[in-house]
Design brief:
- With 335 residues, this protein is α/β, with parallel strands linked by helices.
- The protein folds into two domains: 5-209, Class I glutamine amidotransferase (GATase) domain (Rossmann fold, 3-Layer(aba) Sandwich), CATH 3.40.50; 226-325, Arc Repressor Mutant, subunit A.
- The protein is 43% helix and 10% strand.
- The protein has helices spanning 18-32, 87-91, 98-109, 120-126, 142-148, 173-187, 189-198, 226-233, 242-248, 253-264, 268-286, 291-298, 303-314, 318-325, and strands spanning 5-10, 44-49, 69-70, 79-82, 113-117, 134-135, 153-154, 160-162, 166-169.
- Strands 3-2-1-4-5-9-8 form a seven-stranded mixed β-sheet, sandwiched between helices. A two-stranded parallel ribbon has the order 6-7.
- Helix 11 (268-286) packs antiparallel against helix 12.
- It is globular and about 65 Å long.
- The termini are far apart.
- It comes from Micromonospora citrea.
- InterPro entries: Class_I_gatase-like, DJ-1/PfpI, Homeodomain-like_sf, HTH_AraC, HTH_AraC-typ_CS, INH-QAR.
- One of its GO terms (molecular function) is DNA-binding transcription factor activity.
């Protein structure tokens, strides 16, 4: 008997988009390749399609998949993984297939551990499996997830959420983080660490997906605010107050607060902090400047203040962020 049966749901068998192949390949790689020197037998992997059997029509785009198993085979699996759902179900609000939702509920009721990667969270949410639970998805889709399923406690700052029998991950490589976490839960840290080494990836990454979010992008634009916001972005290294911004916009502080909140979904103080963090991120990625200098140029103050805000808002230290995202050859640090 294997250490567990892992059933992976393939929601699009004809014309599977190439970008969804990555999330599908992750559980196939982690759970589908035997590791007899670590644990024998390994997991038993099942690819479960919406319509099992050979594809009977060509794929106009993407890749055609042939799955031996169907949705009925989710029942009885130890772990069920939904790597993604069709784009139309996320972007256009198209309904998820009723047979998929029913199969997921039946699998959960039969005792399966339920897992989603990236947009697969929409399927678990539609099945009611995330109600009242903390969950995540790719940060580009978490706002849609929260709006569509208000009973779900959406957290866009983490790589994955382990809520016991239901687990969710952010997009793309965060799915690998979660799959390695499952191996760690099932078989221990040594096996998970050895598997990560073989895949040439970290066994555990610091921080969460907050470090990948573009902090400089507003939710909506307000043409009347654009000039003052650009003015402020050009002066992030200087002390700026709400009164300064309101005066520049020829508004009262209260009116400016209201207009900015409507345009960005945040307060003037938080907006300034986000812009300064975005400036610091850019400097960490593209220069070899010292932490003190980056704190000064971004308006975040000392190196200690820079570190404090990074740990709180981004989830990693500035040095860890630089190691992960630097796009330049290191230059001598400038005092």
């Amino acid at each position: 008997m294997s250490v567990g049966t892992v059933a992976v749901v393939v929601t699009e068998q004809i014309g599977l988009p190439s970008w969804d192949l990555y999330e599908l390949a992750i559980p196939c790689t982690v759970f589908g390749k035997p590791q007899p020197d670590l644990v024998d037998p390994w997991y038993e992997l099942r690819l479960c399609g919406m319509d099992p059997g050979p594809a009977d029509r060509p794929a106009e785009s993407g890749i055609a998949m042939r799955c031996r198993y169907g949705l009925d085979d989710l029942v009885g699996a130890d772990t069920v993984i939904v790597p993604s759902v069709p784009d139309a179900c996320v972007e256009d609000g198209a309904p998820l297939p009723a047979e998929l939702v029913t199969a997921l509920r039946r699998a959960y009721d039969s005792g399966a551990r339920m897992v989603s990667l990236c947009t697969g969270a929409f399927a678990l949410a539609e099945a009611g499996l995330l109600d009242g639970r903390r969950a995540t998805a790719h940060w580009m889709h978490t706002a849609q997830l929260a709006a569509r399923y208000p009973k779900v406690l959406v957290d866009d700052s983490v790589l994955y959420v382990d809520d016991g029998d239901v687990l969710t991950s952010a997009g793309l490589t965060a799915g690998l983080d979660l799959c390695l976490h499952l191996v760690r839960r099932d078989l221990g840290a040594h096996v998970a660490n050895q598997l990560a080494r073989r895949m040439v990836v970290p066994a555990h990454r610091p921080g969460g997906q907050a470090q990948f979010i573009d902090l400089s992008v507003p939710v909506r634009d307000d043409a009347g605010l654009a000039p003052v916001l650009e003015w402020a972005r050009a002066r992030l290294d200087r002390p700026l107050t709400v009164e300064d911004l309101a005066r520049r916009a020829s508004m009262s502080p209260r009116t400016f607060y209201r207009r900015l909140h409507a345009a960005t979904g945040t307060t003037p103080v938080q907006w300034l902090l986000q812009q300064r963090l975005a400036r610091a991120q850019d400097l960490l990625e593209t220069t070899g400047l010292s932490m003190e200098k980056i704190g000064e140029l971004s308006g975040l103050g000392t190196a200690n203040n820079l570190r404090h805000h990074f740990l709180k808002q981004v989830g990693v230290s500035p040095r860890e962020y630089r190691r992960a995202f630097s796009r330049t050859v290191r230059q001598p640090h400038v005092a």
